[in-house]
Amino acid sequence: MKNKGLICILLVTLISCGEAPTQFSEDVLNDSFVSLDGADVQLKEILKKYEGEQIVINVWASWCKDCILGMPDLKNLQSEFANTKFLFLSVDRNEAAWKRSLVKYDLIGGHYFLPDGQKGVFGDFLNSNWIPRYMVIDKQGNIKLFKAKKASDNKLKEALQ
């Protein structure tokens, strides 16, 4: 029994010691997303629209209870950091659900749909099976914060200051 506990501690330590990326890989930058008008667009094209801006990326879905419950905190974050651009990347099950949720939750920012959800190139890069997921991209295009699970996370606010 002690050995199982030690093995679990070792695995958790090894997994959490990995360095968070500070750049998107070329594969991720070339991954395809769907814009509101239905066009395929690569992540590098999306990020180019926000060049020189600080960005919060929110990976979310309309079926995600934690995503929806976190909307008030997200809107507070948007108010507090009004000069920051917000980019919403949906892993919804289909485009219709994604588009309905944009109206329902009145999300202000850039909106794109990930056709492969959390299982595609971008999802693999995130190395996460949990949403919401927040990232901060600095004005130089570097990943300043790779992972936050809540809009109220102090690490997220610190990265934005």
Describe the structure.
The relative contact order is 0.19. Strand 6 and strand 7 form a beta hairpin. This protein has 8 helices and 7 strands. The longest helix has 15 residues, at 2-16. Strands 2-1-5-4-3-6-7 form a 7-stranded mixed β-sheet. The radius of gyration is 16 Å and the shape is globular. The chain has one domain (21-160): 3-Layer(aba) Sandwich (Glutaredoxin), CATH 3.40.30.10. By secondary structure, the protein is an alpha/beta fold.
In short:
By secondary structure, the chain is an alpha/beta fold.
Note the topology.
Blueprint: H1 2-16, H2 26-29, E1 32-35, E2 40-42, H3 43-49, E3 55-60, H4 65-69, H5 71-80, E4 85-90, H6 95-105, E5 110-113, H7 121-126, E6 133-137, E7 143-148, H8 154-160
CATH architecture: 3-Layer(aba) Sandwich
Helix-strand string: HHEEHEHHEHEHEEH
Strand content: 15-25%
Q: Count all strands and give the number.
A: 7
Helix content: 40-55%
CATH superfamily: Glutaredoxin
User: Major β-sheet, in short?
Assistant: 7 strands, mixed
What is the SS-derived class?
alpha/beta
CATH topology heading: Glutaredoxin
User: What spatial form do the alpha-carbon principal axes imply?
Assistant: globular
Give the CATH level 1 class.
Answer: Alpha Beta
Domain count, please report it.
1
Helix tally equals 8
C-alpha end-to-end distance = 46 Å
Widest sheet: strand ordering: 2-1-5-4-3-6-7
Radius of gyration: 16 Å
Low-confidence stretches: 5-17
Mean pLDDT: 87
